[in-house]
Fold these 3 entries.
Entry 1:
Amino acid sequence: MTAISLKQCKFSYPNHSKLVINIDQLTIESGEKVFLYGPSGHGKSTLLNLTAGVLKASSGEVSVLGQDLTKLSQSKRDHLRGEKIGYIFQIFNLIPYLTVKENIVLPCMINKKRADRDFHAQAEELVDSLGLREHINKKVTDLSIGQQQRVAAARALIGNPEMIIADEPTSALDEKNTREFMELLMKVWEKKKFTLIFVSHDERLKSYFTRSISLPEINHHD
């Protein structure tokens, strides 16, 4: 099954004629772990927002998990994202006054479909897989940057989403924490086999992935 299919996809921001995204074709199959790389200014985050349904393409087709997002309303795109897509943010976006576990299960408190998937047991499994067991009841503000990023990953993974989108998740980490985070993420992927779209400017991370795509080579933006 195809997880993502872009055809003649173009995007420009309102009141701007400049194309930020101009991709003739991009296909990613279910279960692939794909590394998308390129320097700043080549539309990496914009492309992720298009595939997550945060933004809507100006023209062309953006099919994600069997649905053409260009034909869906904002609310239906939000529903699809909440139910089937986990997002690991560059700046974590954790809730500072919540504990590690409370942050992890938050998507299941918001989305009923994710809540149906035995999320408390999954949270326990994720804290073990990501090395967070001893921190589970701590406030996230008491954790190191590397530990906070693992909480952000666990929150994206809770509820068994079909696809994980990671936007520069290691940009704030040093080399040691980056290596530890990547090894833990790959361990979870081996177990769950979700579709993983991972964006970074750090090409040293290519070796963790089965496929690498240079965004400047496929995005013919202005």
Entry 2:
Amino acid sequence: MALIAALIVVVTLVVMTTGAVPAVLALTTALVVAGIVGIATPAELFAGLSNGGVITIAAMLVIAKGVLHTGAVSRLTHLLLSGVRTSGQVLRRLIPSVGLVSALINTTPIVAMLIPAAKELQQRTGIPARGLLLPVAHATTLAGSATLIGTSSNLLIAGLAEPDGVHLTMFSFVPIAVPVAVVGWAVLMVTAPRMLGGRPDSHERELSWQAEIPISARALAIGRTAVEMEVASTAEFELVEIRRWGDHVDADVPLQEGDTLVFRSTEGGVRMLWANPVFGLAPQRLFLVAIATSEQKSVRDLEEDEDVVVIAAQTTGLLREAPAEPGELCLVTAESADALAENPLVALWRELEGTAPQTAKTWLAVAILVGTIVSASFGLAAVELCAVAGAVLMVITGVLTPRSAVRALNWNILAIIAGSVGLGTIVVQSGLGGYVSDAVLALASGNTLLVVSVFVVGTMLLTNAVTNAAAAAILTPIALEVAAVVGLNPVLLLTLIGTCISFTFLNPYSHQSNLMVMRPGGYSSRTFLRFGVPLTLAVAATAIGVGWSLLTFVG
């Protein structure tokens, strides 16, 4: 049975690595096959749906949405970026501050918020976003592993270890994760200005925005030509074509209501076009929107509410056909931010002519987050109960509407995590975990330093190949068996794995944050490898040293 389980696990991991099919489909297929061959019962294979870690992750997504919805993190970011002159200065300000926040809430929305902030900083000061986005994304990933609620993989490890009597608390990960994060941050601050300077690997034209400006009924442009209005070509934008009911119209033809002018533009050019009274758009408010995680959607799906109109995105094709990729930036017009708050495709937004969204419930949202952390830390209730209570309070107090709370749940991520729990069940119930544990022990010969090294290197390789959740689900039962045989502290060994799962620096597809910054920063896969190798070596060496010291002299 262990051989069949090994075949199922290996095939699943290979399929997930290659991306041949969605990860959810690969995991679900693995669970069904395992159930059919009798490796485990359906209740055991699908226990992830009721796993405490998965429940906590879902609740923390809602709490994070509530905190971000108030604009608290956005205001902190804009405060930190005021008065900066060099990329090194920006990194010294951002990395510790954003790192602290990412230890408390999910890192993905934080990175989504930083993308437009970095782009705006580049326009204002000339500091390239390329030198900021990747190091800050890596910094948030490192810091997220410092607490139980900082990453979904930590919560999953805790949920899988609980039935074996191993209890991980809110700050169990601190002794290993914090020293590793500090070393990683130092490496990022030193290497980023040197290695991420110069031109982007993914060359983009200066006019990187595709803008489609509609001619409204109140537009002064009606009856005039683009040439007459001097909007055909400037340093900030260039008229590509004029569309009228799907047909092309020459630039010397008078405009009519309903025409659409298509431009290639800079972000500043889009603002100029929006504010130009000849188009009649200024009565609407202009927002910069960061797309949330989604599948099979286009940016035009942002127009779910008829009050919202997408006027620009960083694409070379038609706006209605541009894919809505995580972290994608769009410029939209709307009468208010309410329509954006309710849209599931919107991760974060910012009004370009004002500041980040402000609300009187900021301190209430922060208080709920702090209350959740404190109550879970002191064991006032189970972590999942504390998290769910916090999520419910976000709705009861009006920080979030019920609809916004439901839409904060990323069902794709939750399904992957739940499926990964089932993958771990296959490893345990088939006896495969025992064989792998024996192999680890044989390789390490009972030497603590070798055991630590094997787990650090193995975790690092696995987490760069598959999802963090899959790595956590597979390695947790193996670590528990090794700890029991060798006599090591299981909590320290599990926190070592949880820390190393964050070492997703070599492969842009190994972590959501990597994918989000890849295009805005103009990074290639080669950039990730070149920049990630020294960082990975530094944090891996630190993890081995700290892990061995704690397991030898403390554990």
Entry 3:
Amino acid sequence: LFIEQIASGKPITITDPRMTRFMMSIEDAVDLVVYAFKNAQPGDLFVHKAPAATIEDVATAMKTIFGALSPIQLIGIRHGEKLWETLLTREEMLCAEDRGGYFRVLADARDLNYTIFTTEGIGDGPIEVSDYNSHTTRRLSIEETISLLTTLPEVQDALKKVVAHR
């Protein structure tokens, strides 16, 4: 959408500048699939530890890449839209394995007999862990966002068209 807005000279519309999204290249996605294929057991879930960026930073990066003069226009959050993405919930993080660039969540193979939990729980008290989401993960700078975006074939193709029309 940003590319279309820039190409047509329209304002770049964003709903909320604080909104964050995970940033993952096609190459990262392929690497995740290959890693999961090589390392997974049936029922496992793998999540790439992707960095995130604010939508405002993505829009600013796109303006810089394309040399656009389009203003950024805030249009307000849409119904059902979330300020950040959650890839793993707190409960999933409790059983996730840290695999360096990935999280592995093993299939839940527990016994469904919960009578033990009427007298004891897991651990000695509250466990401090939170969701894995785009609001709390590593945040890309505008320069890092530009570097990532310029590796995407869609951005490269659009940039060639813009340069050819100048």
